TrEMBL record:
This is DUF5611 domain-containing protein. Residues 107-127 are annotated as: Disordered. InterPro entries: DUF5611. Residues 107-120 have a biased composition (Basic and acidic residues). The lineage of its organism: Archaea, Methanobacteriati, Methanobacteriota, Stenosarchaea group, Halobacteria. Residues 1-118 form the DUF5611 domain. It comes from Halonotius roseus.
Length: 127
């Protein structure tokens, strides 16, 4: 499960007023909800894209802090996707993930990577 921050001064509710509809428009019908780390996330058990097995997405809310988007993309192994002739679906899956996260956070892939890298560096122990 990964959590992504919004751009400075922005909030998830402002960027995506109806998260369930947005998840469905990118990945397929939401089949329910599931709790992870105290957050209620939407579940897509049968995603439209053949690469995905299952998707969890939702708001990660923290008291006194800005909300984040929490996502988990469960994917089929690359060898299986290629063997089934779904190489085009693999390209589309990458685009879908990046477009969804860009809409939710306002940050492109490079910016999200750099932010995650800074968080890891900040959490590193001092020796």
């Amino acid at each position: 499960m990964k959590e992504y921050k919004m751009r400075r001064g922005e909030h998830l509710d402002d960027r995506i007023p109806d998260l369930k509809d947005t998840v469905e428009s990118y990945f397929g019908t939401v089949t329910g909800t599931e709790e992870h780390n105290g957050h209620e996330l939407y579940v897509v058990d049968d995603p439209d894209n053949a690469v995905f097995k299952r998707i969890l997405a939702g708001a990660a809310e923290y008291s006194g802090k800005k909300d984040k988007i929490a996502v988990h993309f469960e994917e089929r192994p690359a060898e299986e996707v290629i063997a089934d002739g779904d190489a085009a679906a693999a390209e589309e899956a990458v685009s879908l993930k990046n477009e969804f996260l860009l809409e939710a956070t306002g940050r492109d892939a490079k910016s999200r990577r750099e932010s995650l890298k800074r968080e890891v560096e900040d959490d590193a122990p001092d020796y």
